[in-house]
Design goal:
CATH class: Alpha Beta
Structural class: alpha/beta
Number of strands: 7
Shape: globular
Strand content: 5-15%
Helix content: 40-55%
CATH superfamily: Glucose-6-phosphate isomerase like protein, domain 1
CATH topology: Rossmann fold
Number of helices: 12
């Protein structure tokens, strides 16, 4: 389906759930967020199933699902791996130049980060670090789906033969012009689109006497989607007998078993990533079949 037709079809789908999320007196953010998650559950089950199958198809044969996000969209990427309750197979791709902006102004400030994610050509430089090929898959998180870098990450992945899953706000994306010279959006370069179901502008709660709404919903939506994909993918991998080790807290399994699972998971991630890194073939050739590598690291990720 060509990009314009896909955009029109997705716009029609959003009309079924484009009413404002409640956020009036007495409800505030928790009620609004609950409504948002309910909307995702009601409308995105098919897309989540498709995305999870693509992830299981890659991870189940020893390959990777690469996950990219800039700005606050780095949060769901980091939620995928490494995290308690997560497992190897997801490869987080997060560029500090577009995400490390907690200083807000001055050096490493928000203005620079927002500028950089609009630069065309940067995505190809990022992707050139990897040997991307099927059956790997690509997950791209972007609330607006309008900035150059996430658009070109998706486009570059597809050009290399990878299926692309876009996690984006369809209504937000279709409400404004593309920031890319092609005029396309992230969702135009995706095989599967999972809708965050957040409104244009992201904020969920209107306050009487305040000109604009507050309390954005995209982070809780994106993290919920990341964990839903993670859980569904795990169920598929267990069915196939291909489940990698899970990072598990000592509170559940004791320190020795927890350390063992962390070692195994990190070794498995290194084993997979060595094959995916450009120039990493030599390192991969020296990784034994059992996945043991000479640079294991122990520790936790809460």
């Amino acid at each position: 389906m060509i990009a314009s037709d896909l955009s029109k079809r997705l716009y029609r789908l959003t009309q079924a759930h484009s009413n404002p999320i409640p956020g009036g007196e007495g409800s505030r953010f928790l009620d609004a967020a609950t409504a948002l998650l309910g909307r995702i559950e009601q409308t995105q089950s098919e897309a989540l199933a498709e995305a999870s199958k693509l992830c299981a198809d890659a991870i189940g044969v020893g390959r990777l699902v690469h996950a990219f996000g800039s700005g606050h969209s780095r949060i769901p990427v980091e939620e995928l791996f490494p995290r308690y309750g997560s497992y190897p197979g997801f490869n987080p791709i997060v560029e500090l130049s577009m995400t490390f902006h907690t200083q807000v102004v001055g050096a490493n400030g928000q203005r620079q980060a927002m500028f950089i994610e609009r630069v065309e050509g940067l995505a190809e430089v990022i992707l050139s670090n990897f040997q991307l090929e099927p059956p790997d898959a690509m997950l791209v998180f972007s609330v607006s789906g309008l900035s150059a870098v996430p658009i070109e990450i998706a486009r570059g992945a597809r050009r290399r033969g990878l299926p692309v899953v876009a996690v984006t706000s369809v209504e937000h994306s279709l409400s404004g012009p593309s920031g890319h010279s092609s005029g396309t959006r992230l969702l135009d370069h995706a095989d599967v689109v999972v809708d965050l179901c957040t409104p244009p502008g992201d904020a969920l709660v209107a306050i009487e006497g305040l000109e604009t709404p507050v309390a954005p919903g995209s982070t809780i939506a994106a993290v919920a989607i990341a964990n839903e994909v993670k859980a569904r993918t795990a169920a598929l991998l267990v069915e196939r007998g291909a489940m990698p080790p899970v990072l598990t807290s000592a509170a559940l399994v004791g320190k020795d078993r927890s350390d063992e699972l962390f070692d195994d998971a990190y070794a498995e991630h290194a084993h997979r990533l060595a094959r995916a890194l450009r120039g990493g073939e030599a390192m991969y050739e020296h990784v034994p079949d059992d996945g043991e590598v000479p640079f294991q690291t122990t520790g936790g990720s809460e």
